[in-house]
Design a protein that fits this description.
The chain has helices at about 1-5, 10-50, 55-65, 70-75, 85-95, 105, 110-115. The chain is an all-alpha fold. It has one domain.
Length: about 120
Amino acid sequence: MLQLLLGQDPGLLSQLAASLFSQGAFMAYSRGMETQADYLGVETMYRAGYDPRGMLSFLKKLDSMHRSSPGSVAQFFSSHPLTATRIQEVQLDIAKLPPKTFLAETGEIKTIQSRL
């Protein structure tokens, strides 16, 4: 099909294929970095005394705003993982954390807010 569109120039065809696959590989790397950022966000919230389930709430709102399901080609070139995948990964990350009482549950947050 591509030969019909591009003619018989194999050099142009190979350049196009190389460009497409290198772009896709870069996007996969970028998605991995985004997954790592989500993990660090969960860990930072937890250590700071904030309930990391707030991140799940945010991602679910984001997911409801962008209900479109991209095809495999769109996903291949996306720089971010699908929001549904991010939600699943964050849930798994949170499940690995030991139980903890968070600021909002202790009432300490209200004391801090009143001082501000």
